[in-house]
Amino acid sequence: MTLAVGLLLAAAMIGWVAPRYLSLAVTPGLRPGLALAGWVASAVTMLFAIAAAAVLLVLPGSTDFDRMIGVTESCLHVFRAGGDVTWGHMAALGGAAMLTGLLGWTAVVAVRRLRGQRRWRRRHLTLLRMVCRCDSSVIWLEEPAPVAYSIGGRRGAIVATAGLHQLTKGEREAVLAHERAHLRGRHHLLVLAAEVLAAALPFVPLCRRAPATVRVLVELAADAAAARRHGPDPVRAALLAVSTSGAPQPALAMSREAVEVRLAWLSHERAAVRRLPVRLDYALAAVLAALPAFAVVAATGLAVALYCLGVAG
């Protein structure tokens, strides 16, 4: 039971405290993809800790796996009445049921949102291909305002207007590189996941703040990808020139959202961390996100051991 308690405390710590230390990573000079991976890895770690705690709570008390890490079961002997610890068993089953309910509700919300977005994407793409001209990678709209956005999914697409041809070639290529980065990084799925967590677990600060933060970070990550390919100056100019008046809500566009933050980040793009390959962002973020959880589990086990030693003494 010690491990289950430790995992629950780790999940609570990540859910309530992680937004404070994760905000330190949202700073110019640090690669935005790493900051984005930190938010994603923290949310995944929190959900994994909840699921693992639910499983451990329903395992038999004699499970060797938990005994290797904790001594809570031994401490319960102090409170035994007539040789049975019925209240402990009931609390464990009740806690497991509550945690399973939270995870189940999150899964229900995720399925509903995913189905809704799939239906919208299918209808939207069908309509666009009926009225627009398409090349191998971009659906072009005859619209004078410079607009570009991407639609995620297994077969993602980029939608752009003829108004992009008003920009210089470098700026136009930067806009398209930005949208390709959204598709390549599965940013639509990350935004959807953040919205699911906020809808299912709004009382958890990490989940409540995830949609707004992830939306900004995916834009920063796409800006950085475009800047690595075409340089920060064309990306900066394109950001100031492109409008998002024609982009639908479920799509991701080179938006004017958090423009000052994005311009500041682009000004530091040359100084960003480059030694670590981009593909290792999530691996490093997963390790860093797991460290607080391991620390809480270890501290819980130590606290229980010291308490039991004190009671036994």
From TrEMBL:
It holds the Pfam family Peptidase_M48. Residues 141-198 form the Peptidase M48 domain. InterPro entries: Beta-lactam_resp_regulator, Peptidase_M48. Binds 1 zinc ion per subunit. The chain crosses the membrane at residues 6-22, 34-59, 87-111, 282-309. Signal peptide: none annotated. Its cofactor is Zn(2+). Keywords: Hydrolase, Membrane, Metal-binding, Metalloprotease, Protease, Transmembrane, Transmembrane helix, Zinc. GO terms for biological process: proteolysis. One of its GO terms (molecular function) is metal ion binding. Belongs to the peptidase M48 family. This is Peptidase M48 domain-containing protein.
